[in-house]
Amino acid sequence: MRRSILITGANGQLGNCLRDLAADFQDQYNFYHTDIDTLDITDVSQIESFVQEHPVDIIINAAAYTAVDKAEDDQEAAYRINRDAVRNLAEVARLHHLFLVHISTDYVFDGHTNSPYKEDDTPRPCSVYGSSKLAGEEAMRESGCRGVIIRTSWLYSEYGHNFVKTMLKLGRERESLSVVYDQLGAPTYAGDLAQAILDICEQADTIKEVETLHFANEGSISWFEFAKSALEMAHVSCSIMPILTSEYPTKAKRPPYSLFNLGRIKTKYGVKVPYWRDSLKLIINKLSE
Fold it and tell me: Hey, what domains does the chain have and what are their CATH numbers?
């Protein structure tokens, strides 16, 4: 018997990658792809009505307020989507015994460490965006529902607006670019994250409460190295200059170090984690088609 998965935020990067993978899982799942125009998750009554009208077993929340700098002046909207909507989904999941997958971020940490973050490390967000995402995590844990919180970092894909597409665009328009080199982490291809989520969903019956997992592509690089690699792979002739974070001020603070320890998701759930260069090359080829 096929299970049914409700996907929120289906028009975003992750949502589109989940849509692409749906065909590979059609024997296991029936998918409902929704976004703000078809399901407003800040309205709990709409979520309740949806799950009563459709046979839903699993909810994947790919919706989020991700405008990191804008969030500093738009706290109400950030918390409404990143905390309140998560609470709504978690409450409905608990009431109807559904499995909830919620996506969080490396921004729940302040980046003041020298070793990869484990799931049980104490969060210390240094921005409104990070604080609102942490509040969403806490709301889900307090709800009593079953599911997983998957923290990820530096998300990019062939869809929407993201760092890779911006670098390629600017690299073709300018002779040189300046990119920070003192922020270290790992990029994540949204397609790899989508695959990991569906792999976890296949093991949903083994998860009895809310578990936190970390997922990013293997490896550790700076934004400078990431930009340089993308342009080189795309054969874009543009000089990339490394600069300090202090030379590129932003409204919101970024964690200077946000590398994840991926041991739990790999060993406990058998999720394969591709190397960042392999995934980046895949996307560069897709964008070149």
Answer: 3-161+187-217+258-274 (3.40.50.720)
Tens-digit pLDDT profile for residues 251-269: 999 999 999 999 999 999 9
0.90 exceeded by the pTM? yes
Q: Which residue, 210, 82, 43, is CA-closest to 140? A: 210
Tell how strand 3-8 and strand 58-61 pair up: parallel
Q: How far apart are CA 20 and CA 50, in angstroms?
A: 23
278: left (phi over 0), alpha (psi -120 to 50) or beta: alpha
* Cβ pair 206, 275 in contact under 8 A: no
Structure tokens of 230? 């993308």
User: Is-catalytic flag, 129?
Assistant: yes
Q: 32, 129, 181, 189: which is the annotated catalytic residue?
A: 129
